[in-house]
């Protein structure tokens, strides 16, 4: 998907109404194209949308090591879900003349970086993307009611696996280790995400 399909862009534009604040969620399994689609939507909306990825709420590597969860980074309990919920709540009701700062995730460092993404109060649409927007366990169940529209992305598993392996290799893993991670941790998370499809407002087939 090199450009945003016209129906998707039209749907996002309908949410980006000046004078209001709406939240669009883009969910799906690891490697399904969430961050790519979200970034292209923000670019196409030309100042009417801001992108706030869920990945900014990864726990720091030191904390994952302390908790014994570093080997399954990306699982639901390796994020600060309550922090993400608190941010979404703030974003739903912007304060005039007050910019909200959201964290980003630096894939080169494999660490979250606080205060990286400014969201000005007059931006009508916030797009957030991540694996667990439609996950209904624990604190994640409270995410869906905060979102005005949620899309679930689907991509052929073989294509998704290939892209994930390539991503892990680009960010420092040896190819065999990347394959093991994709078949293990990433696929475990994909299975958790899959039932959320039924709670989406729109299913998007990716290529």
Main attributes?
alpha/beta, Rossmann fold, 5-stranded parallel sheet, 6 helices
Brief summary of the model shown:
With 207 residues, this protein is an alpha/beta fold. It contains 6 helices and 7 strands, in the order αβαβααββββααβ.
Describe it.
With 207 residues, the protein is of the alpha/beta class. The protein has a single domain (6-201), classed as P-loop containing nucleotide triphosphate hydrolases (Rossmann fold). It has helices at 6-15, 34-45, 61-67, 81-92, 157-170, 175-193; strands at residues 22-28, 49-51, 100-106, 111-119, 125-130, 149-154, 202-205. Strands 2-5-1-6-7 form a 5-stranded parallel beta sheet. The chain is globular. The protein starts with 5 loop residues before the first helix and ends with a strand. The model has no long low-confidence stretch (mean pLDDT 94).
């Amino acid at each position: 998907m090199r450009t945003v399909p016209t129906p998707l862009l039209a749907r996002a534009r309908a949410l980006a109404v000046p004078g209001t604040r709406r939240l669009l969620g883009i969910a799906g399994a690891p490697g399904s194209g969430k961050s790519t689609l979200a970034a292209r939507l923000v670019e196409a909306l030309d100042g009417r949308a801001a992108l706030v990825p869920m990945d900014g709420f990864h726990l720091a590597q030191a904390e994952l090591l302390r908790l014994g969860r570093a080997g399954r980074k990306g699982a639901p309990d390796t994020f600060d879900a309550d922090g993400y919920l608190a941010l979404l709540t703030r974003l739903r009701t912007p304060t005039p003349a007050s910019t909200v700062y959201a964290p980003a995730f630096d894939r080169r460092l494999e660490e979250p970086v606080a205060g990286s993404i400014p969201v000005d109060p007059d931006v009508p649409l916030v797009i957030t993307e991540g694996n667990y927007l439609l996950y209904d366990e624990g604190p994640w169940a409270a995410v869906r009611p905060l979102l005005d529209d949620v899309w679930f992305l689907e991509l052929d598993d073989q294509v998704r696996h290939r892209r994930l392996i390539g991503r892990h290799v680009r960010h420092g893993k040896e190819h065999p280790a990347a394959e093991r991670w994709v078949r293990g941790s990433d696929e475990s998370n994909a299975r958790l995400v899959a039932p959320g499809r039924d709670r989406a407002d729109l299913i998007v087939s990716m290529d």
